[in-house]
Amino acid sequence: MSQFLPIEIMIAYMVELLGGDTVESKIERSETSPHPVRIIGKAIMFLEQKLRQLWIPERISGLILTFIIVTGTYLTTYLITSVLGGLHDTVDVIVGTIILYYTFSVRGLAVEAQSVLRALEAGDIDKARSNLSRIVGRDTKRLNEEQIIRACIESVAENTVDGFFSPLFYAAIGGPPLAMAYKAVNTLDSMVGYKNEKYLKFGWASARLDDLANYIPARIAARFLPFAAYFCGTNFQKSFYIIIRNGRKHPSPNSGIPEAAYAGALGVQLGGPSTYNGELCDKPFIGDDLEPLTTEKLRVAIKILYAASIIAVTLACTVLTIARLVKH
Description:
- By secondary structure, the protein is mainly α.
- The protein has one domain (5-327).
- Helix content is 71%, strand content 5%.
- It has 12 helices and 2 strands.
- It has a two-stranded antiparallel sheet with strand order 1-2.
- A hairpin with a 2-residue loop joins strand 1 (270-276) and strand 2 (279-286).
- It starts with a helix and ends with a helix.
């Protein structure tokens, strides 16, 4: 692992805050874009097509896909950092920073949530629904304002872990290669980890690995989000309380924890029935319906995202620096 890892993490985080990818900017990229997630996605599609042509059980095919993509991503990234990083210390920092930049998504998520917020404040609910559809999997065409805000806050909460705490955690313990391997796990889950007829068996390995990969980071986030809520002027104690009470109510073993943290901090109720591809999914409620879901609640949720990421990256870099100094 690079001796400059804390510097790489901090620079990558700051650069992402200044110019992180939004969903819209990713769509606008050309098909030849060198974005690592796009490359991983193309590899997943290619291998899925080839594996489905083989006369082996779907679960085994899915396991093979997951192993090849995650292992291949790690080894490729490790090779790049080892070869280029060995040329010069400056090159080492630049390469590590670039790779880590592609694994973080704080500004990108915040900008997408803000696009929903601005549309609602302008009274354009159709645009708000359209913007929301870029960051959620549920059907958005018939959502009212309160439902849009609830869905957006839930997306911000869940992606606080997927888009920041998890890649930061794996970057801290394994450097850029492990952070990018996590990104591969997350991409696999988003592409084949569905519980429908096509992917229930084929995508089981990817879905289970994603749950496992996010297990520790989600629980680390549970410690940081209430403190972030405190600095944003919201309910610190309620955030902790709702995490303990409702954090395990979500169908996902991890998503309910950050949702509970945000729900408690904001004094709102998240979860409940949602429609996915025309099918109703009756998820449990998380939090207490103490205050209405307003655009101001969404604005504060975005602030909590930023505050949590600042606290976490500062502490991570500090701990890594101290550990290196003690070691030497």
